[in-house]
Design brief:
- The chain is 28% helix and 25% strand.
- The protein contains 18 helices and 31 strands.
- Strands 7-27-8-26-25-9-12-14-13-24 form a 10-stranded mixed beta sheet, with helices on both faces. A 6-stranded antiparallel beta sheet has the order 1-6-2-3-4-5, with no helix packed on it.
- The relative contact order is 0.12.
């Protein structure tokens, strides 16, 4: 740009010079340097379970040619009169069965979670995982409200954009003939990553994204542009040693994993270097004995009189016979009686200066009895040797099992060692047999639910990459908003079973069917939203069945799973001590919410906002109570503010409840109630919820 401006300055005609400068300035503002792609492509999401009414947006359910958005003018019986926003004078009538309500990108949405199912295999645990059936963009909007800045790890395996109709944009499968497929994919990813960034804890978190050769270069540029403050690395991982044979080309054996870290996030070491299956050898380290005489220059006899005394040693074998009493300052040490057959060792420096022992005699005697004091290098000819002892830290390690006593010497002193498995930092090229996608991805999944899903990730590949970043975080929150076959939750449960962790996983997936399944269903006369169509969608047919079966330890036919998990030898048939809830994301009318008419629908959202502790509560009757006190879920809700005094009294009986939701239209009332409650977190219903989604309209 500097060179162009220099050339422009040489133009003699002032009018022409100014005009050209103006146009170049406009171009400079429009030009984007770096990754360039179409960012304006709109997205819309079909809302099959939402009623069609006046003023809402709709589109045709099944039309390859007309993907327009229409606005409903009126509903008449089984038909709707609609118009395109840009052609308001040209109304058209559709049958209701042929159209579906849609939410456009940037439109205000007010989500809720409809309970579909749950599995409870650990009734005594308050840990509940979550699967949400939804378009992941809208689910991320909800998760931002629930967990902004609180997520420790996001792991995603997005569509690879292979051109094989493996993903949808604007409700259409994207194939290899689409000239804009790369721009569509980048727009699709950018919008979701913008929301995902808001979930991550900026002080300590990690984003993990897997990809293959089709988009890894584009993705790398996108991640660098979107997250300049993160530390980014890329791993090359072998997923099939035999490779994918391609005529005239190199055989593909690998995929790629981008790792982005924030704040204090760091990689935990492993017994594997990940470049091969060789295990870092275990090692044993002996405990360290220290000289008993204090060596500090100021450690003289008169500085601590109670630490100057004789240690009597047998003249023949050099073993400690006994420990004498304190010799007070001013008394000649040579005047002290020495038992027959023994020599008195004193804390003397090399030049004969009187120093101190490290312990008072009473403690020294106790340590000697336990084998923590000894004499080394005994010379019976000149009656000399050195006294050694175990410091308090080493003794503590022995007594709490960190160091193990392996034997005793002839003088009664202990022999103890520290045991280490041996660890090594992982390398950036991974070639692990357990990461084979067919053996430990496809075969494991097929054994659980049958042949319902193509190309799942290896269970151990997902387990390993997550473990590297949350092994030291037993209570981590892990999110996967491209959850596919549900490998991530399976891996988190395995990790928890191995180390006793309490990590919680939130998965999001749509309920799309494959292109072949869609054609088959359409040939039979079914449409998206029909029960026959929905039951074959990935959430209902793959993700949730795998979740239930892996937790309970059986396949979809009820047969116990065979084999053990590699690395831990945990039987698959044992399942996991875990619980999970399955929800479908829906949308609420904000007016009905503000009037308190949708509290029952909002209850699962409040449960998630407080950490999903205990089983998700449900209202049993049609009547909404004045309040809910839920100690097992560790939150409470005041619905009728006129009963606040009773609410506060009952809340005081449950100090474990530290989160409350207070329904009131008035800020003054809300602040007054909060001041009278001893809780950590308080939210105003329904204002907090409505304001969040209203303010965030079109924020991207």
């Amino acid at each position: 740009m500097a060179a162009i401006n220099d050339l422009i300055s040489q133009i003699q005609d002032e009018t022409l010079r100014n005009r050209i400068q103006e146009e170049v300035s406009k171009m400079a503002k429009q030009k984007k340097f770096g990754l360039v792609f179409e960012e304006h492509m709109p997205e819309s999401t079909p809302l099959y379970d939402m009623p069609i009414k006046r003023g809402c947006n709709v589109m045709l359910r099944d039309s390859k040619d007309d993907k327009s958005i229409y606005v409903v003018l009126k509903v008449e019986g089984d038909t709707a009169v609609c118009v395109k926003p840009e052609q308001k004078d040209e109304a058209v009538t559709f049958e209701l069965k042929d159209i579906v309500r849609v939410a456009e990108f940037g439109e205000s949405i007010y989500p809720y979670l409809k309970p579909l199912d749950s599995v409870c295999n650990a009734p005594d645990s308050d840990l509940w995982h979550t699967l949400i059936e939804a378009d992941n963009y809208h689910a991320l909007q909800l998760l931002e409200y629930l967990y902004a800045g609180k997520v420790d790890c996001i792991y995603i395996d997005p569509p690879y954009n292979t051109g094989a109709k493996d993903w949808k944009y604007n409700n259409d499968y994207v194939d290899g003939n689409d000239a804009y497929r790369h721009s569509k994919w980048l727009s699709f990813m950018q919008r979701r990553l913008q929301l995902a960034k808001k979930l991550l804890n900026p002080a300590d978190s990690v984003l993990i994204v897997t990809i293959d050769e089709k988009e890894y270069l584009h993705l790398g540029c996108l991640l660098e542009e979107m997250f300049p403050e993160a530390r980014m690395q890329m791993i090359t991982t072998v997923i099939s040693a035999k490779g994918v044979v391609r005529t005239g080309q190199l055989s593909r054996v690998e995929e790629y994993i981008f790792i982005l870290e924030w704040g204090g996030s760091c990689v935990c070491s492993s017994i594997y270097n990940m470049l091969n299956d060789e295990v870092k050898k275990e090692s044993d380290r002996s405990i360290e004995w220290l000289g008993f005489r204090r060596r500090a220059p100021q450690a003289k006899r008169n500085s601590r009189p109670n630490q100057f005394y004789p240690i009597y040693v047998n003249n023949v074998d050099g073993k400690i016979a006994s420990i004498g009493d304190v010799v007070q300052h001013g008394i000649d040490r040579n005047s002290i009686f020495v038992p027959d057959g023994c020599t008195a060792l004193w804390p003397l420096s090399k030049d004969g200066d009187e120093r101190l022992w490290s312990l008072v005699p009473e403690q020294a005697r106790l340590n000697f009895e336990k084998g923590y004091l000894k004499v080394n290098n005994w010379n019976s000819a000149n009656k000399s040797g050195t006294v050694y002892y175990l410091p308090s830290g080493t003794i503590k390690d022995i007594e709490n099992g960190k160091a193990t006593i392996v034997g005793y010497n002839t003088d009664g002193s202990v022999e103890a060692k520290y045991h280490s498995e041996g660890t090594t930092p992982p390398k950036r090229v991974w070639n692990m047999k357990t990461h084979n996608a067919e053996t430990y991805g496809t075969n494991i999944l097929n054994a659980i639910i049958g042949k319902r899903f193509d190309y799942p990730k290896s269970l151990y590949a997902v387990h390993d990459v997550i473990r590297f970043f949350v092994a030291n975080k037993p209570n981590a929150i892990i999110v996967d908003f491209f959850s596919g076959s549900g490998t991530t939750l399976h891996a988190v449960n395995l990790l928890n079973a191995e180390d006793g962790g309490h990590r919680r996983c939130i998965m999001v997936t749509n309920n799309e069917v494959s292109a072949d399944e869609a054609k088959m269903l359409k040939d039979k006369g079914y449409q998206p939203g029909d029960a026959e169509w929905e039951k074959l969608g990935i959430a209902h047919y793959v993700t949730w069945p795998r979740t239930v079966c892996s937790i309970e330890g059986h396949d979809v036919n009820g047969n116990p799973l065979k084999g053990n998990y590699i690395g831990s030898d945990i039987p698959m048939a044992d399942g996991f001590k875990a619980n999970a809830a399955f929800f479908k994301l829906g949308f609420l009318d904000p007016t009905a919410v503000s009037l308190g008419m949708r509290f029952s629908e909002m209850l699962p959202t409040l449960w998630l906002k407080t950490g999903a502790k205990g089983k998700c509560p449900e209202l049993t009757g049609k009547q909404v109570p004045d309040m809910l006190i839920l100690p097992e879920n560790q939150f409470a809700v005041l619905i009728n503010e006129n009963t606040f005094a009773d609410f506060a009294e009952k809340l005081a009986e449950h100090p474990e409840i530290q989160t409350v939701f207070l329904a009131t239209d008035y800020e003054v009332n809300y602040q007054s109630m909060v001041k009278n409650l001893n809780v950590e977190n308080a939210y105003q219903l329904y204002r907090d919820y409505l304001d969040h989604f209203r303010v965030n309209r079109g924020r991207n």
